[in-house]
Write a structure and sequence with these properties.
The protein is an all-alpha fold and about 325 residues long. Helices cover about 65% and strands about 5% of the residues. Helix 3 packs across helix 6. It comes from Salvelinus namaycush.
């Protein structure tokens, strides 16, 4: 399929350029190599992080037994020994979010820098556009898994309560050396979010815009809206969609579309749902609703609950009804 981006037509400006974006292939050019290598080192860990989160079962039984038998030191120790390695795992997830944030920043710098327009960037930096999509795919995948696993919050709450109790009794636990109080506070804020990875990327994108005052905000939001348009068109156009050689690419494409919509909604002053938005929200939601419900319910929930402007007065009743 050659190039990542093939501009097939640009006649319908109202709906944006019709583009085929090949998520399945793309190798970095010499100009992209430095950023690509930096981001690639982060993305190499992403699959392992998702696998660990998917197999995260928690220490619910041990914690319940310890709470029900507060005088049984053996059960207290058993619960503590079960929770500590899990908290170490949660720390790794949190630390990975910080690396992901830095990777996103590097990609935003590359894909929005003057003198090129967003469309030109996507054509010139094809491999970086693919990495940007991979970060969004990971982010929504991670958050879907986290939202359906209450053990994460329960384990971490038990860990913090135990640390606090022992501190009151002037006892220092060995695990505190790995997750000290400051780290525990930061992790607590991270896991308190329904969608922690998405919140991290939204904050990072907003910060990128605010810190780059010489860069017009439209350069960033146009990059996001263009990617949303590309994904929507590929999903709703059979002749483009049939070019995917991997069945997982459809879900990948949907996650990327939802991810860029949410980032756009957090960064743009009036958001993604206003009439002036450059994203065809009706079209995007319609495309999602045409897929099997079990594969898109988490994505629809992300639009319902993690966007910033859905409930604004400027959002049409029709769009709100589509997300009911």
């Amino acid at each position: 399929m050659g190039n990542l981006l093939k501009v097939l037509a640009c006649s319908d400006l109202e709906h944006g350029p019709i583009i085929f974006l090949d998520f399945e292939h793309a190798q970095p050019t010499e100009a992209e190599t430095t950023v690509w290598n930096q981001v690639s080192a982060v993305l190499e860990e992403a699959h392992g992080i998702l696998a660990e989160l998917q197999s995260y079962n928690g220490a619910g039984q041990e914690i319940r037994e310890a709470i029900q038998n507060p005088g049984d030191l053996q059960l207290q120790e058993k619960a503590w020994n079960a929770v500590c390695p899990l908290v170490a795992k949660l720390k790794r997830f949190y630390e990975f979010s910080l690396r992901l944030e830095n990777a996103l920043r590097s990609l935003l710098e590359a894909l929005t820098s003057p003198p090129y327009a967003p469309m030109q960037h996507l054509e010139r930096e094809q491999a970086l556009a693919k990495q940007f999509a991979e970060i969004l795919h990971f982010t929504l995948s991670f958050d879907e898994l986290k939202m359906t696993n209450p053990a994460i919050q329960n384990d971490f709450s038990y860990y913090r309560r135990t640390i606090s109790r022992n501190r009151l009794n002037n006892q220092q636990l060995e695990a505190e050396n790995e997750v000290n109080n400051e780290m525990a506070n930061r992790m607590s804020l991270f896991y308190a979010e329904a969608t922690p990875m998405l919140k991290t990327l939204s904050n990072a994108t907003t910060k990128f815009v605010s810190e780059n005052k010489t860069l017009p905000i439209e350069d960033t939001t146009d990059c996001l809206s263009t990617m949303a348009c590309v994904c929507r068109v590929m999903l709703e156009t059979p002749e483009y969609r049939c070019r995917f050689t991997n069945t997982d690419t459809v879900l990948f494409c949907m996650r990327v579309m939802v991810g860029v919509i949410i980032l756009y909604d957090h960064v743009h002053p009036v958001g993604a749902f206003a009439k002036t938005s450059k994203i065809d929200m009706k079209g995007c939601i319609k495309v999602l609703k045409e897929q099997p419900s079990n594969s898109v319910e988490g994505l629809l929930n992300a639009l319902r609950y993690t966007t910033r402007h859905l409930n604004d007065d400027s959002t049409s009743k029709q769009i709100r009804a589509l997300l009911q």
